[in-house]
Amino acid sequence: MATQQRNHARVDSGSPGTRRTVHPAFAWAGIIGPVLFTATFLVQEAFRRATYDPLAEPVSALEVGPYGWIQQLNFVIFGVLTIGHALGQHAGMRTTRGGVTGPLLLGITGVGAVVSAAFPLYDDTAGVTQFPPGHLVGGLAFFLISPLALIALSVRMRHDPDWHRLAGYTLVSGLVLVCLDVFTLGFVLPDSAALHDWAGLVQRLTILLVLFPARVVMAMRLLAMSHRKVATPSSPHTE
Q: Beta partners for 130?
């Protein structure tokens, strides 16, 4: 038993081809984060139908009003769990030169969620919802960097036999998100855009059908990898 505990805590030197063992908590962070975040904003929508339109308004608009602190807290918890998942993702994959890029980008999206909470939306004296610059930075960090994180992670997955089967799915998810980001920036976000009144729907389709499933699938694989007690060496690879 003592030997197993020492092996579970073992951390490799980070040389190419090695893998650190991962505590299951980091994998659970990647699973619970998207699920809890989604459940929380869906419950809020259900109780705020008189003042909130989920088809037209983004999730961030739930920060407005006396109960906005709930969505702020939701952003913070999700961001922290995302950062935890990123740490576990890095440890749970065989190292490659430059392989830290994907987990680092994933962690930055978590920071973006926290920043979005720190600069919440609010209604001005005329009742018009305002988007503070800090919130825009956090939101852009989350939505624009998320696809880059998946693409970078897919590259690292190709060099790891234990992750190779997810490389294609992760890459496609990232590329689809790039297309959705371009579509959103051009046809949804501008006030005069044709689909501006459907911004909430487009955002939900993006995160619920593409982004969150990809993250949860990775986290579930990471959870399976967390049961391995000893770092596994392999021949060096480079990205």
A: 122
